[in-house]
Amino acid sequence: MPHPLQPFTYCPACGADTFVVRNEKAKQCLACGFTYYSNPSASVACFIRNKKKELLLVRRAKEPACGTLDLPGGFTDRYETAEEAVYREVKEETGLSLGNCRYVFSLPNIYPYKGVNVHTLDLFFECDVEHFDGAQAADDAAGIVILHPKDLNPEDFGLLSIRKAVLMYRDFNEHDCAIK
User: Which fold has domain 41-174?
Assistant: First the structure.
């Protein structure tokens, strides 16, 4: 796998073209000494359940993985908590206002964006709503899909960490276990 900062040739501090690999997660400028670390970006994804224990999913409107299933969610904004990102992203993509949300687990991911691999830490939440009435696809979502957890097929999801999360969630729900 190429270095996470491989596409970046110039130092972001001084602009010199002497930005070289320092180690597996950083590059350093030979001209000014600036070191940039490639730490993961935070993103959130939500398993949204109604009273019937069905899940609300979205169909991706954009690349990567346009047209595949996804969990509502996205990248956290600066100065925003993961919980605030959950409420904002779900509102933007579905129009739903969430009630009870709880963190369930995290997974590392590589999000391919226009030729650059963005390393992310995906934070997964489970959120409850009374019903899905009024949910409409918007923003990064092209459609709404409602499924029962037992009917989830991880291969229908285009992003690797989402596939892994869906498999974990489905397996825990089949055994009536709580995700820990």
Answer: Nucleoside Triphosphate Pyrophosphohydrolase (3.90.79)
